[in-house]
Amino acid sequence: MADQIGWAKILATALISSLFTAAIAEPIKAFIQRHLRRKELRRVLYNEIVNNFGALHSQVEMAKHDIQMKDGIGKRFAMSYKRLAYDLAQKDAVAYYSLGFNELYWIELHYRDFENVINGRFDDNDQHLRNAEFTADYVLNNLKNRHLSKRHMFKVSPPWAKEYFRENLPKTSYIYSHTTLTLVEKLRRRYDQLQYRLWQLGNKRRD
Prior knowledge:
Helices cover 80% and strands 0% of the residues. The protein is built from nine helices and no strands. It is globular, with a radius of gyration of 25 Å.
């Protein structure tokens, strides 16, 4: 009789442990795995965007300083353009769409704009250059207006890109006027101003 009671307790304990694992531990594990996949997905996408930005920005600067480089700007950019991370990300639908509609919208828009520089039709080289310059500057604009995460972009950016962003983000305009802002956005912009001042102080110390 005592043995039967002992086995019943063991079975009950095992059943409770199994239910706990199924009801709590497994969902937590799945949540952590999704979070890590989303984090890695964002990292590789932002890394690819900043590298494409760098390749396009360098082509724009060359074309602006050498009239002969205006011709073929799209072909030269195509040699450095990458979208492997973007294509692979879309195959992992759960992690990809967990980024959220707003962030995905701007990420997808950047890739469309990059490819328009390569495959788009333009009246002349000057129009092509203006489009390429706008596309490169749009990365900066979207960082300024929080369509892309500035924190994540800085994490994956090489030193030259971080320096470029620190120099040019303070000069970039916000999209929305100050009179239409929510309290949260006003506080975010105050934080931006503080961050810009810290960047300036850091530059002065290095000089």
